[in-house]
Specification:
heterodimer; A: TIM Barrel; 8-stranded parallel beta sheet; 11 helices; 10 strands; B: 447 residues; alpha/beta; 3-methyladenine DNA Glycosylase II, Chain A, domain 3; TIM Barrel; Rossmann fold
Amino acid sequence: MVFKIPDITYNGKIREIKLGKEDNTLTVGGETAYPFYHFEYEMPTLPRIAMEVWDCSPDDWPEAAIEPFADVINDSVAWAKKCIANYGAEMIALQLISTDPGGINRSADEAAKIVKKVADAITVPLIVWGTANHEKDSEVLRKIAESCAGENLIIGPVEEGNYRRIGAAAIGYHHAVASSSPIDVNLAKQLNILLGNLGVPDDLILIDPTVSGIGYGIEYSYSVMERIRMAGLTQQDDRLQFPIICNIAKEVWKTKEVHMANDEFNMGNARKRGILMEAISAMVLLLAGGNILVMRHPEAIKLIRETVAELTGSTK
Amino acid sequence: MPLTGIEIFKLLPKTNCGECGVPTCLAFAMSLAGGKAELTSCPYVSEEAKTQLMEASAPAITPVTIGVSDRAFKIGNDTVMFRHEKTFVNPPALAILITDTMNDSEIDARLERFKLQYERIGVTLRAEMIAIRDDSGDAEKFESIVTKVKQNSDGNIILMSNNPDVMATGLKACANRRPLIYAITEDNLDQMVKLARDYSCPIVAKATNLEGLSELTTKLTKLGIKDIVLDSGARTPSQTFKDQILIRNAALKNKFRPLGFPTIVLPCEMTDNPMKEAVFASIFIAKYSGIIVLSDFQGESLFPLLLERLNIFTDPQRPLATTEGIYEIGGPDENSPVLITTNFSLTYFLISGEIETSRIPSYLLIMDTEGLSVLTAWAAGKFNSDTIVPFIKKTNITEKIKHRKLIIPGYIAAESGGIEEALPGWEVLVGPREGANIPAYLKIWDK
């Protein structure tokens, strides 16, 4: 018997989507094979990393995550700029933590002002993420869509409970949406159909499958993402052929393991542990088909960038 | 690669005699295909058909047992490319590297770090193997290190040397542990095969590409060597990733026997940066390796890798469950809130994490719902007032609290009346539907 490379029958393609402002766009998706199977087909775009910025000063981050941003952590604009200038961020993800009705509960108007400021200060694509509170997100994200007309934002999460209100605003002011469903391939597909019926153009839809980190159910996200990719690439399911966005950083950095002290429970150096919990979670999601990762720690980001370069680079 | 029911049916006598216990040969064939019946139940199947069915039912990826007694484990035997198609079966073993040029204190420290272990939902997470590499070319030195490792650790051993003479002394020193021989190549084939036979140990077949590897394992199989682990020779993440995928795909899809064995990968030879090495290793946990050799173990990298491995190799067909009981989070007192949820592990992790985030000390009551999540358990009748009320009584939570308030998940709001009726004096509060909203909810409680 002679070794022959087994072939996989692909018949679909992930939609290529252009994100960001006119003369500064970034393309995601476009792949025609499983993640990093570059020996079969080209991966026309590499996975992108959006660096996370909060709209308020975080009070529950471990030291390791605060340290790189300590000088800008009270100023979303300076924070976003630092991500780009110092860490080469190719996208920014602004988390609207302060709008949480159970927290600071900032109004839609205030939130819109902050987003506008950040959008004006940067040229890279901007993701704006709510708090997954249907009512509040509808209000806040609609307002932002309007006041940031022309910025071509990516707004999310857009869920079954509020897709009409946010979707309509996205269509009206031309922003992309993160179609968000709770770790279920059928619900993901259904929401994409609904968004399509509402009139959201296909080139403005990203899938947010809902992700969690290692130790906290990442296997569910992993398999749902693999099923989404399989449906899109081998079963011609055009309602699942959208790039996938993974808002992973805040899931990892809230776990108890990243908050434990050095050597607590034999878990070694706290800083490195946090970085690796984030980097390994991110790597797992990339293997499952993630196109955009929202990440936090510059060193975790560097590790992922270099690993992606290694995986897609030299050997064809 | 298993045959389909129809393919099996063609080989059966088609008499529909029913002596196997099912009425028709077709039904029996379907049971066979589903692994629910044994071929021996059919008294009339021909010898020829038996041989054919046996061959076809041999695992596409040969299972290989490494080590002896209670530390022994299996690699290989996986049947799918994607875990949702069935489940991944045998998780890759993690190995720590020791070389015979390291000094005693370094080796002692590594043997100590090899013992690192972690408890999680009743499972102990730890590494399995110690790889001992001959860097000196000195057989005596190698032997003394192997002896030291054997005496001081119960870990399974990989002996790494291309030199059959050095390998022979190492094998002699730890033969009763049934170490893994690394590696047979085209160059040392005859001598290494003899050693593998003499000591009946599993071996790694190493080549420089998949074609060469296929030729090598074909030779080994002909020589009667069965316990084979594959090293394609790749030492970059890109080439290794490619080889892992092609090997598994060739074995499963093309039924290509020469590559139907578990693999070994060596992130320890891919980079000098331990953080990067951990990320590389994380790729091969998800993508198909059987053994992963790391340059060293540190808690900060070993723990995340073990967690990832636990997750990826969780059977997607069977939910993981947490033990029923009262979980005290953040040191609660007699006035602290009491929340209840199901014992689906993911539910438990999310909810306990959110309560921790809230920094409001609380009691979390975990009820045994056979590992089902809140909505599924409720729909299945395992998480409603009829089951919750006896559970609350059984926990004796009232001995710990002064108040009588119970917070239930928003998704089972409909049960609140039923619970209050059956638990006089209690007030049932309907909590949020999503765990993410628990911190906000508990802050209101605090006020």
